[in-house]
Amino acid sequence: MRTVPGSRPRRRSPASALTAVVATAALGVGLAVVPVVPAAAGGRSGEAVTFHVSPRGSDRAKGSAAKPFRTLERARKAVRAASHKDGRGRRPVDVVVHGGTYRLRSALEFTAADSGTGKAPVRYLAAPGERVVISGGRSLAPHWRSYSGSIKVADIGAGLDFDGLFVDGQRQTLARYPDYDPDTAILGGYAPDAISAERVARWKNPTTALVRGLHDGMWGGNSFEVTGVKADGTPELAWVGDNNRGSGLHDTYRMVENVFEELDAPGEWFYDKPAGKLYFYPPAGTDPARARVETAEQNELIRVEGSGPGDAVHHLTFSGFTFTRTHRTLFNTPYEKLQLGDWALARAAAVHLKNTENVSVRDSRFDQLGGNALLIDGYNSHDTVSGNEFSHSGASDIAVVGNPDAVREPSTWDHMRRTISDTRPGPKSENYPRDISIRDNYLHDNGQFEKQTSGVQISMSRRVTVDGNTLHDGPRACVDINDGTWGGHLIQNNDIFNCVKETSDHGPFNSWGRDRFWPLTADDATKKSYAKLDAMETTVIRHNRIRHSSHWDIDLDDGSSNYLIEDNLLLNGGVKLREGFHRTVRNNVFVNGGAHFHVWFADSGDVVEKNVFVTDTPYSLIQADMARSRPVIDDNLFWNNGNAVRGVDDAWRANGLDTRSVTADPQFTGASPFTDPAKLDYTVRPGSPALALGFHNIATGGFGRAGSPTPPPLTWPTETPDTDTLDALPEPLLGVPVTRIYSDAIKSATGLTDTNGLHLAAVPGTSEAYRQGLRANDVIREIDGRPVTDRNSFWLAYNQAAPGAGVALKVWRDQASTEVSLRKPTGGEQINNTSGVVYTGSGWDWKNRYRGGAGGWADDVHATQTVGDSFELAFNGTAIDLITQVNTDEGEVELFVDGRSAGTIDNHNATRVHQKTVFRAAGLAPGAHTLRGVMKTGDYMIVDSFVIR
Fold first, then answer.
1. Residues sharing a CB contact under 8 Å with residue 486, sequence separation 6 or more, in sequence order
2. How deeply is 901 buried, as exposed, middle or buried, from its count of CB atoms within 10 A (0-12, 13-18, 19+)?
3. Where in the chain is the domain with CATH 2.60.120.260?
4. Assigned architecture for domain 722-826
5. Which residues does residue 818 pair with via DSSP β-bridges, in sequence order?
6. Which CATH code is given to the segment(s) 326-331+341-692?
7. Which residues on neighbouring strands pair with residue 662, listed in sequence order?
8. How many CA atoms lie within 13 A of 193 on its CB side?
9. Of 211, 567, 613, 785, which residue has the fewest beta carbons closer than 10 angstroms?
């Protein structure tokens, strides 16, 4: 058995002693079940009392093995009586539930009266080797008849409340547009015209329609009910509240369902509730007359709830069951916004624990549920979730969520506090989970309907251990910590991959730290003094294998503080640290990923040391002033297969960073990751230079639940980096560089939902831009009342303003809109070839420094080889200079000022000269003018920059 430093060994019970395997075609997985238990009720004082339940039993029976009860409700009543009747002390009680399907018409509720004790627990156990299903649906016996084409119809009764239909154990598709496509990750298919007036006009009853889509920033999902139709033919939408960041619906990523007229594909169904008719388009190979048909109706199956922390349900176990067929809570349960994270929660689940202690859910399967699978809600202590499989949940698999009344001065995006009056640390009440253990589970394919979901979600909780689980495939993070309250979590030995499949700006592990200190109107030192008021205890992320298909395996977003990240294998991504304090990243192996430092506070207290970076760019900075933030970054090893490593240079080391770090082959055992992308063993050999720096080898085994899938291979980049694109080109504005929002990293740093605007990554205090009110990480969103969507939408307006005139900007700063008033310089201004120049013709090509633009004013040029192509710049001033490159392959260009020929210039030259002024027009009347150039001869016409006076 291997151990990880700082962790406890995990016990795995021998299968021969404890477990049997149940395998069914419908569930497709083996489940560990419970020990063999006594066969009869009764027993001497102190011995276990055992009751039996069977679908073939009777509630008038004694509950023995020979004469079992029929229902779980009857068994619960017997347990209460048995737990209290022995005057000489309580006895353990086991309820052995035999194979079959138990259909609940309401949730089975357990209160403090159903509790056991430490020495006399109460256990509800599936009989060894038998498949026991707890279902929230009913079995239908429809008499199908033909309706139209392949569609069948049956009368099943009016007024039923279900939104899930299962045929032979498989979830069918509620009639939708566009049709479900298993090969499309986002929403199983999406269409911009899903709720267009033209489509809505086809629907006889639009108010049955349900709209699901992504948030407009792709930060999770947003869902709506259609309540009517507007005068323009588009639907009236009522938001269900399933996102903490507002109700914006993405323009493209959207679909509509529960519309009869959209029933047009195999597997789709529609229930006409008033008429009681079920319509179904059977999949190929399905005979509906012989098929097993079931609904999903109940929101919850098991609810364990004490009346409060002083009257908790305790020492109760559920083991070996299959929980299935619950109603989606997406459209029938109110949502609660959870602090300042992005999450909103419907407080419901198939198994719901509230006000509990020492309650266990073990060795069970949560299969195709409509909403959350398991919710640990409010006060809970020392509960255990272990050995389970969670498959295709409609929302999150496991949610561990406290109550807002436990939080001192809580904030949401609707009500954000900017001051602190209560400076006491820690929780305000006992209504939060603490010391929860989530171990050895297999969690996959969550978020089938909701998109702000996780395998494990944690909010307003303390000391939650997530250990030895395999988590993969979901629309958002596979493990999410919504807020810093109150830390102390241990995330270790997990295997995490294929997450964030439908959303963006997120990592497989994600956290937020938007606690009391983060929204403060205060300086960084004050924020640092308050950072541990909520994040009281260090959260440890240790010995996990995490693989991502984007930027960050571990995403510590907005204020996440007090973290230790060590001994992790991070594949295809890296670590993001944004706006927090006291984060240590130590002894990790980064493969095809690095450390991303976003929007750092002064004197951050961060440490990045003794890591191995296998990448070309180990560090990425966005508004991170290393001299100001003063992190400790050293003793790291960098390797890019013998090629250059970017960024770790003399300027970097001048700030005291990586002064002892080295670039060298880490000497991994076995093949190189550059030749074997499927490599998972990153042990370094004796003599590795990494060991000399203090790195120690990470155990290569013990990730995830044994027997579960493992991550896919790496995907080394084969395309041009996004920093080599036109959108990423830094063009000057008032002495500082501006770009488009060209990457998810910048979008994340700014907190925007789209990529519109011009981004100012750095604004030195000595610059004209700073003097006029612009700041680092600003995004210019409007100019003189007009939206800035791309470069030209800004420059065409800016260039038309007269020198000395005022220019009104709307700027996105610190995730809010503000106004800045500029005054355009009067002493002359140089602008780039990308700054509002209109190019006409088929031959134009933008060339950056890697493709022939090096030496230009901004290390770029525009060039064409097609005679007759032209450029035109509209400007406001009295003079203009044209600056370009001259060379042997260039020729004549005819120039026009305000539509009149100003003559022909010849750019042919015996040698190449960059940034040469080839034309000047002066003495123009004050006001608007144009300069146009047309290629006449030569192999090239090049445009570099202009000076306007």
1. 426, 427, 432, 460, 461, 462, 534, 535, 536, 537
2. exposed
3. 831-948
4. Roll (2.30)
5. 811
6. 2.160.20
7. 637
8. 6
9. 785
C-beta of residue 103 within 8 angstroms of C-beta of residue 90 = no
CA distance 726 to 501: 27
Q: Where are the beta strands (DSSP E) in 204-276?
A: 210-215, 221-229, 235-239, 249-257, 268-272
DSSP conformation letters of 586-629: ES-EEES--EEEESPPTT---EEES-EEESS--EEEES--HHHH
Rounded distance between C-alpha atoms, residue 682 and residue 303, angstroms: 45
| Lookup: tokens for 404 | 């807002």
Across residues 87-97, what is the average pLDDT?
A: 81
Q: Which two tokens stand for residue 679?
A: 């490599």
Quote the strand ranges of 309-446, DSSP E. 313-319, 321-324, 335-337, 344-346, 351-362, 365-367, 374-381, 384-386, 389-391, 398-401, 433-439, 442-444
For residue 656, CA distances in Å to 596, 626, 633, 935, 945 come to: 18, 9, 8, 52, 38
Its pTM stands at 0.86
If DSSP codes are grouped into helix, strand and coil, which group holds residue 278?
A: strand
Residue range 132-162, pLDDT digits in tens? 999 999 999 999 999 999 999 999 999 999 9
Beta strands in 617-722, from DSSP E residues, in sequence order: 619-622, 632-634, 637-639, 662-663
* Half-sphere exposure in the Cβ direction for 566 (13 Å, CA): 20
pLDDT at 42 over 80: no
- Which pair of structure tokens corresponds to residue 178? 């566009």
Residue type (1 letter), 57: G
CA 686 centroid distance within chain:
39
Q: Which of 608, 648, 646, 602 is nearest to 627 (CA)?
A: 602
Task: Work out the pLDDT band at 814, boundaries 50, 70, 90.
Answer: confident
pLDDT confidence band for 803 (50 / 70 / 90): very high
DSSP assignment of 777-823 equals TEEEEEETTEE--SHHHHHHHHHHSPTT-EEEEEEEETTEEEEEEEE
**878 or 717, higher pLDDT:** 878
Under a CB-based contact definition with an 8 Å cutoff, are residues 269 and 107 in contact?
no
> CATH says 831-948 is which class?
mainly beta
pLDDT at 22: 30
- Give CATH 2.160.20 domain extents, the chain: 326-331+341-692
Cα 619 to chain centroid distance, Å, stands at 22
Question: 586 has which bridge partners?
Answer: 566, 609
CA dihedral (476, 481, 483, 484) positive or negative: negative
User: In the chain, where does the domain assigned CATH 2.30.42.10 lie?
Assistant: 722-826
**Is the CB of residue 135 less than 8 Å from the CB of residue 325?**
yes
pLDDT per position as a tens digit, 849-858: 888 898 999 9
- Three-state DSSP at 240 gives coil
What is the distance between the alpha carbons of residues 216 and 134, in angstroms, rounded to a whole number?
38
